[in-house]
Write a structure and sequence with these properties.
The chain has 236 residues and is α/β, with parallel strands linked by helices. The protein has a single domain, classed as 4-Layer Sandwich (Purple Acid Phosphatase, chain A, domain 2), CATH 3.60.21.10. Helix content is 27%, strand content 20%. The protein has a 6-stranded mixed beta sheet with strand order 4-3-2-1-10-11, with no helix packed on it. It has a 5-stranded mixed beta sheet with strand order 5-6-7-9-8, with no helix packed on it. The longest helix is centred in the middle third of the chain and has 17 residues.
Protein backbone atom coordinates (compact mmCIF):
# COMPACT_ATOMS: atom_id res chain seq x y z
CA UNK A 1 0.00 0.00 0.00
CA UNK A 2 1.27 3.45 -0.96
CA UNK A 3 0.49 6.28 1.46
CA UNK A 4 1.03 9.97 0.77
CA UNK A 5 1.81 12.01 3.89
CA UNK A 6 1.31 15.77 3.54
CA UNK A 7 2.78 18.30 5.96
CA UNK A 8 1.27 21.46 7.41
CA UNK A 9 -1.01 23.23 4.91
CA UNK A 10 -1.61 26.73 6.35
CA UNK A 11 -4.04 27.82 3.63
CA UNK A 12 -1.84 26.72 0.69
CA UNK A 13 -4.72 25.40 -1.40
CA UNK A 14 -2.89 25.76 -4.72
CA UNK A 15 0.00 23.59 -3.55
CA UNK A 16 -2.37 21.00 -2.11
CA UNK A 17 -4.17 20.75 -5.45
CA UNK A 18 -0.83 20.26 -7.20
CA UNK A 19 0.17 17.53 -4.74
CA UNK A 20 -3.12 15.66 -5.01
CA UNK A 21 -2.99 15.78 -8.81
CA UNK A 22 0.58 14.53 -8.91
CA UNK A 23 0.00 11.70 -6.44
CA UNK A 24 -3.46 10.66 -7.55
CA UNK A 25 -2.39 7.01 -7.77
CA UNK A 26 -1.65 6.45 -4.06
CA UNK A 27 -3.89 4.18 -1.97
CA UNK A 28 -4.40 6.60 0.89
CA UNK A 29 -3.46 10.07 2.11
CA UNK A 30 -2.67 11.45 5.54
CA UNK A 31 -2.63 15.18 6.32
CA UNK A 32 -0.73 16.00 9.51
CA UNK A 33 -2.87 19.07 10.20
CA UNK A 34 -2.61 22.84 10.51
CA UNK A 35 -4.93 23.67 7.66
CA UNK A 36 -5.60 27.14 9.05
CA UNK A 37 -3.78 30.40 9.89
CA UNK A 38 -1.07 32.17 7.95
CA UNK A 39 0.55 35.58 7.98
CA UNK A 40 -1.77 38.30 6.69
CA UNK A 41 -4.63 35.89 6.12
CA UNK A 42 -8.31 36.77 6.31
CA UNK A 43 -11.74 35.38 7.06
CA UNK A 44 -12.27 34.94 3.32
CA UNK A 45 -9.13 32.83 2.88
CA UNK A 46 -10.05 30.82 5.96
CA UNK A 47 -13.48 30.03 4.55
CA UNK A 48 -11.97 29.09 1.20
CA UNK A 49 -9.66 26.62 2.95
CA UNK A 50 -12.49 25.19 5.06
CA UNK A 51 -14.71 24.68 2.02
CA UNK A 52 -11.93 23.02 0.03
CA UNK A 53 -10.95 20.80 2.97
CA UNK A 54 -14.59 19.79 3.48
CA UNK A 55 -15.56 19.28 -0.17
CA UNK A 56 -12.36 17.73 -1.54
CA UNK A 57 -10.01 16.46 1.16
CA UNK A 58 -12.51 15.24 3.75
CA UNK A 59 -14.82 13.89 1.06
CA UNK A 60 -12.21 11.27 0.12
CA UNK A 61 -12.79 8.11 2.15
CA UNK A 62 -9.13 7.12 1.77
CA UNK A 63 -7.88 10.30 3.44
CA UNK A 64 -7.04 10.76 7.13
CA UNK A 65 -6.96 14.25 8.65
CA UNK A 66 -5.10 14.91 11.90
CA UNK A 67 -5.56 17.75 14.35
CA UNK A 68 -2.88 20.41 14.38
CA UNK A 69 -2.69 23.14 17.01
CA UNK A 70 -4.01 25.60 14.40
CA UNK A 71 -7.04 23.37 13.76
CA UNK A 72 -8.11 22.28 17.21
CA UNK A 73 -8.32 25.87 18.44
CA UNK A 74 -11.16 26.40 15.94
CA UNK A 75 -12.80 23.00 16.48
CA UNK A 76 -13.13 23.88 20.17
CA UNK A 77 -13.36 27.66 19.87
CA UNK A 78 -12.61 30.28 22.48
CA UNK A 79 -10.78 27.80 24.73
CA UNK A 80 -7.95 29.88 26.13
CA UNK A 81 -5.54 26.99 26.64
CA UNK A 82 -5.77 25.97 22.97
CA UNK A 83 -5.17 29.35 21.33
CA UNK A 84 -1.99 29.94 19.34
CA UNK A 85 -0.54 32.51 16.94
CA UNK A 86 -2.83 33.42 14.08
CA UNK A 87 -6.06 32.87 15.97
CA UNK A 88 -8.64 35.60 15.45
CA UNK A 89 -12.25 35.81 16.66
CA UNK A 90 -13.58 36.55 13.15
CA UNK A 91 -12.10 33.32 11.83
CA UNK A 92 -13.32 31.41 14.87
CA UNK A 93 -16.89 32.61 14.40
CA UNK A 94 -16.76 31.78 10.67
CA UNK A 95 -15.56 28.23 11.31
CA UNK A 96 -18.33 27.63 13.87
CA UNK A 97 -20.79 27.54 10.97
CA UNK A 98 -22.69 24.21 11.16
CA UNK A 99 -21.92 23.75 7.46
CA UNK A 100 -18.37 22.80 8.48
CA UNK A 101 -19.39 20.11 10.94
CA UNK A 102 -18.69 17.34 8.36
CA UNK A 103 -15.11 18.61 8.19
CA UNK A 104 -14.57 18.73 11.95
CA UNK A 105 -15.94 15.21 12.26
CA UNK A 106 -13.11 13.91 10.07
CA UNK A 107 -10.29 15.22 12.28
CA UNK A 108 -8.43 12.63 14.37
CA UNK A 109 -5.60 12.74 16.92
CA UNK A 110 -3.32 10.19 15.23
CA UNK A 111 -3.02 7.57 12.52
CA UNK A 112 -0.75 4.63 11.74
CA UNK A 113 1.07 4.42 8.42
CA UNK A 114 2.80 1.06 8.32
CA UNK A 115 5.11 1.11 11.37
CA UNK A 116 4.91 4.89 11.80
CA UNK A 117 2.73 6.62 14.38
CA UNK A 118 1.63 9.85 12.70
CA UNK A 119 0.57 12.85 14.79
CA UNK A 120 0.79 16.57 14.18
CA UNK A 121 3.78 17.21 16.43
CA UNK A 122 4.84 13.90 17.96
CA UNK A 123 4.48 11.89 21.15
CA UNK A 124 6.98 12.57 23.92
CA UNK A 125 8.17 9.57 25.91
CA UNK A 126 6.69 11.03 29.12
CA UNK A 127 3.17 10.31 27.82
CA UNK A 128 3.66 6.63 27.08
CA UNK A 129 6.62 5.16 28.95
CA UNK A 130 5.98 3.37 32.25
CA UNK A 131 2.46 2.28 31.32
CA UNK A 132 1.39 -1.32 30.82
CA UNK A 133 -0.93 -0.50 27.94
CA UNK A 134 0.23 -0.51 24.34
CA UNK A 135 1.00 2.83 22.70
CA UNK A 136 -2.32 2.60 20.86
CA UNK A 137 -4.28 1.95 24.06
CA UNK A 138 -2.41 4.62 25.99
CA UNK A 139 -3.05 7.27 23.34
CA UNK A 140 -6.72 6.33 23.15
CA UNK A 141 -6.97 6.70 26.93
CA UNK A 142 -5.18 10.07 26.92
CA UNK A 143 -7.33 11.36 24.07
CA UNK A 144 -10.56 10.39 25.80
CA UNK A 145 -9.39 12.16 28.96
CA UNK A 146 -8.41 15.24 26.97
CA UNK A 147 -11.77 15.42 25.21
CA UNK A 148 -13.61 15.05 28.50
CA UNK A 149 -11.59 17.86 30.01
CA UNK A 150 -12.32 20.18 27.08
CA UNK A 151 -15.98 19.70 27.93
CA UNK A 152 -15.11 21.13 31.34
CA UNK A 153 -13.13 23.99 29.77
CA UNK A 154 -9.79 22.51 30.84
CA UNK A 155 -6.83 21.71 28.57
CA UNK A 156 -4.74 18.70 29.56
CA UNK A 157 -1.00 18.31 28.78
CA UNK A 158 -1.73 16.11 25.74
CA UNK A 159 -2.97 19.26 23.95
CA UNK A 160 -0.72 21.83 25.62
CA UNK A 161 2.49 23.54 24.60
CA UNK A 162 5.81 22.69 26.18
CA UNK A 163 8.46 25.13 27.42
CA UNK A 164 9.89 25.75 23.94
CA UNK A 165 6.55 27.09 22.72
CA UNK A 166 5.66 29.02 25.88
CA UNK A 167 3.96 26.28 27.89
CA UNK A 168 4.71 25.06 31.37
CA UNK A 169 4.78 21.29 30.92
CA UNK A 170 7.82 19.06 30.57
CA UNK A 171 7.26 18.85 26.81
CA UNK A 172 4.55 19.69 24.32
CA UNK A 173 1.67 17.36 23.61
CA UNK A 174 0.74 15.77 20.29
CA UNK A 175 -0.20 19.11 18.67
CA UNK A 176 2.67 21.15 20.21
CA UNK A 177 5.86 19.10 20.63
CA UNK A 178 8.78 21.08 19.20
CA UNK A 179 10.91 18.98 16.83
CA UNK A 180 14.14 20.88 17.36
CA UNK A 181 14.25 21.13 21.14
CA UNK A 182 11.69 18.73 22.62
CA UNK A 183 11.21 15.76 20.31
CA UNK A 184 13.43 12.76 21.01
CA UNK A 185 13.33 9.21 19.65
CA UNK A 186 11.40 6.66 21.70
CA UNK A 187 12.80 3.16 21.64
CA UNK A 188 10.76 0.76 19.56
CA UNK A 189 8.49 3.50 18.19
CA UNK A 190 8.88 5.26 14.84
CA UNK A 191 6.98 8.50 14.28
CA UNK A 192 6.08 10.89 11.51
CA UNK A 193 5.18 14.48 12.38
CA UNK A 194 4.90 18.07 11.19
CA UNK A 195 4.52 21.27 13.25
CA UNK A 196 8.16 22.50 13.14
CA UNK A 197 8.94 23.76 9.61
CA UNK A 198 12.11 23.61 7.56
CA UNK A 199 12.97 23.58 3.87
CA UNK A 200 13.39 19.80 3.74
CA UNK A 201 12.08 16.61 5.30
CA UNK A 202 14.21 15.68 8.33
CA UNK A 203 15.09 12.40 10.03
CA UNK A 204 15.92 11.69 13.68
CA UNK A 205 17.04 8.11 14.05
CA UNK A 206 18.05 5.82 16.91
CA UNK A 207 19.10 2.66 15.11
CA UNK A 208 20.13 0.84 18.27
CA UNK A 209 16.62 1.19 19.66
CA UNK A 210 14.78 0.78 16.35
CA UNK A 211 13.32 4.27 16.14
CA UNK A 212 13.22 6.25 12.87
CA UNK A 213 11.38 9.58 13.02
CA UNK A 214 10.52 11.90 10.15
CA UNK A 215 9.37 15.51 10.11
CA UNK A 216 7.40 16.39 6.96
CA UNK A 217 6.63 20.07 7.64
CA UNK A 218 8.38 21.73 4.68
CA UNK A 219 6.00 24.55 3.64
CA UNK A 220 4.69 21.86 1.21
CA UNK A 221 7.96 21.96 -0.72
CA UNK A 222 8.39 18.23 -0.13
CA UNK A 223 6.07 15.34 0.70
CA UNK A 224 6.72 11.70 1.52
CA UNK A 225 5.26 8.48 0.20
CA UNK A 226 5.43 5.42 2.45
CA UNK A 227 5.27 1.99 0.83
CA UNK A 228 5.91 -1.26 2.70
CA UNK A 229 7.65 0.69 5.46
CA UNK A 230 10.02 2.53 3.12
CA UNK A 231 9.95 6.34 3.09
CA UNK A 232 10.44 8.15 -0.22
CA UNK A 233 10.84 11.94 -0.24
CA UNK A 234 9.51 13.88 -3.22
CA UNK A 235 10.15 17.53 -4.09
CA UNK A 236 7.14 19.56 -5.20
Amino acid sequence: MRTLVVGDVHLRIGQVKQILDRFSNVDRRVFVGDFFDDFEDSVERTLEMAEYARDVIAADANTRILFGNHDIQYAFPFMEGLLCSGWAPGKAFALKDPAFQPLWERFEPYAWVDQFLVTHAGVHRSFIEGYENSVEDRLRELWQEAMGSLGERRVLPLLSAGPTRGGSGKAGGITWLDWNREFEPVGGLSQMVGHTPDERVRLKEDKANKSANWNVDTYLRQVVVVEDGEVMVHAI
